[in-house]
Amino acid sequence: MTRVAVFGEMLVDLFDSGPVVGGAPFNVARHLAALGHAPLMLSAVGADAQAQPVMAELDRYRMTREGVQVLAACPTGVVDVATRPDRSHSFSIRTGCAWDHIALPPARAAVSALAPDGWLYSGTLALRSPVSAATGLALLRQHTGPCFVDLNWREGHVAPAQALAAVRLARVLKVNDEELAMLSNWLGGPGPQAPLADAARHVLDSLGGPGPLALLLVTCGADGALAFDAAGTRVAQGRSTRPVQLVDTVGAGDSFAAVVLAGLMRGWPLADTLVRATDFAAHVCEVRGAVPAELQAYADWTRDWPAVQDQKGL
To answer: Cα separation of 40 and 68, whole Å?
Structure first.
């Protein structure tokens, strides 16, 4: 049985330079596969030409197709990407895509292959539509193992109430520093000008108590990442010390999430996990797109890591 399932969008990003397969959850799943785990991707694509490169990535990463629904009535997801002068990107995410219609019965059947104490990862973008929202939230509620939720906020797509419904089911929650301030504000706490630790403490206080939240991860771009426990205490921090030849930042947060998940499954010390995750994200910033063109890159990037040895995680 696999120890990790990933729920959410699979799509094609249309850059100025051409199409690139993407979707934050699919980026996470591909990284996990390359890192020696066997992720189950829970998503949907159309029966169209855009689906072909998406499904080919499953084969390239030797991932099962069991959790991917093929919906002839819906197009494969597409995002139109524009590059700004500072090399950041703006995204126009098309609606009515296959991943907006991930049905619960086949997803539930596929997730039966997940170990009872395995991890379930979810972003929040797929919660924008009624069908996929019902499926994603049902999977999170019914899962007996730990859930990893990445807020990964996309303005104008998901209502805060829907995102919060997923966040409240997380054992581990990942946000960036801007998302932390936004989440704190949603929960009636301090706004963007408040110290990061104060915002983190308010979020944990608001989401803690009887809930499952045990760990809050906050990424801060080039300043690395912080981890707070359920009491709001900073328990670890990590920052990449290697110089970065920046190409683009697409998928940096997804690569960080994948390595943290791998570290939790392997039982790595949290401080080591954050350093490896920020280093890995820095490598991804040096390639075009969210994953490397050649799988050999993973071996180069992780050469000094301990060998894969799954252990009971958080």
So the answer is: 9
Q: What one-letter code names the amino acid at 56?
A: A
Token output for 241:
């010390």
Residue 266, domain extent? 2-298
User: Looking at residue 65, which CATH number applies to its domain?
Assistant: 3.40.1190.20
Phi, psi of 253 (to 5 degrees): -65, -35
Residue-level pLDDT, tens digit, the chain, 314 residues: 799 999 999 999 888 778 899 999 999 999 999 999 999 999 999 999 999 999 999 999 999 999 999 999 999 999 988 877 776 667 899 999 999 999 999 999 999 999 999 999 999 999 999 999 999 999 999 999 999 999 999 989 999 999 999 999 999 999 999 999 999 999 999 877 789 999 999 999 998 765 689 999 999 998 999 999 999 999 999 988 888 888 878 889 999 999 999 999 999 999 999 999 999 999 998 888 889 999 999 999 999 898 665 555 55
Which one-letter DSSP state was computed for residue 76? P
String of b and e for 269-304 (b: at least 16 CB within 10 Å)?
ebeebbbbbbbbbbbbbbbebbbbeeeebbeebbee
CA distance 192 to 182: 7
Beta bridge partners of 22: 11
Inside any domain, residue 97: yes
Residue 70: other Cβ atoms inside 10 A? 15
